[in-house]
Amino acid sequence: MDYVGSRFPEFGPPGPPGRELTSAKIVVAGGFGVGKSTFIRSIVENDLLTMNALPPERAGAVTELVRIQFGRVWLDPGLALHLFVAPQWQDPRAGWGDVVRGAVGAVVLFDVMRPADSVDAMRYFEDHRIPYVLALNNVHSSVRSDVKAIIRGMGISPDVPVVNCDPRVRLSVRETLISLTEHAKLDRWRRRAGPDETTPLAPVC
Amino acid sequence: MSSSPDAHRRRKRAETPAEQTFADLMNGFSLNSGRKRSPAPEQVPAREATPVVRQEDAGVFEPSVQEAHDASIVRAYAWTGGRTRSNIDLEIETLVSANDQSRQSAGILQAEHQRVVELCHSPRSVAEVAALMRLPLGVVKVLLGDMAERGLVDVHQTASAGGDTPDLGLMERVLSGLRRL
């Protein structure tokens, strides 16, 4: 009945009064039909919710409601992780800014048959220095290294992890999210200014 | 005895400023495009009194946008007095929860505030409130901002470091949470 996750009741909110609650979000981007909703559904357990973003300054266009799907999972008793499907248009008026601002990072799902669909999102995250991982949608292992080589040849930053992911498989989704968060953490470290900062151990690639 | 609800209603009317803004907003909608614009002030209280949120099963979300839904969005902007900005910074993932004050105020709140309090007995994000109440994000932000200013909901800030990037502590927490899943 309730949207609050039932799979992990021991993590269920609310805590006692005064317990610190906070939240984080991850954006899931990629072309149409590449598996963004499936990806999120695999990890949040409850069905996705849909939020309408109606840009006030464009209120004249009721039919232009932007629908943004998302899911939520409690990672610990005080931390709610939200996963948002990135709107198709990178338009701040279409809810894009709301979804991207303050995100831990983004997962760009990549369909090898339709690579162009994901390129806009990749370009945006590169330009805005938002950490992201490229998740190849279930590429067969026999051609995986070739595909990765082609993608590297497209000129994305060498730091960006390229992983294989089956959006239907919970463990695969979880691994992808872990790769993203590790990458984002490292990225954050690198950008920290100050002479007394030390770099954590680099991940083994 | 009966003065109390009257006073409450008067207060609500008094809280509907900025008819100009609201009128602008109303005129922006295409629903009445065939009609001549009418001065909005007389309409405002009547529309505000209309119950906006139908108590439908909150678990079902139809992918289609119906006309009735559009109309409810128009009315929803009437709740906010036509304002489209909130004074309180709310991200879509920001959690809000009901507090003791809002629980004690049960029964004397405006209907839409009451609905939010009921939803937020467990903490909910702004996005969840928007989805479950079937209201546009902008409206929900203003609504929740108002309630937060009046102390009716607690806002649990996200851990983004002063601006756009979450801090390392939060990332570490996300990471260990994901590993436990």
UniProtKB/TrEMBL annotation, chain A:
SUPFAM superfamilies: P-loop containing nucleoside triphosphate hydrolases. GO terms for molecular function: ATP binding. Keywords: ATP-binding, Nucleotide-binding. It comes from the Bacteria. PANTHER family: ATP/GTP-BINDING PROTEIN-RELATED (PTHR42708), GLIDING MOTILITY PROTEIN MGLA (PTHR42708:SF1). This is ATP-binding protein. It comes from Lentzea kristufekii.
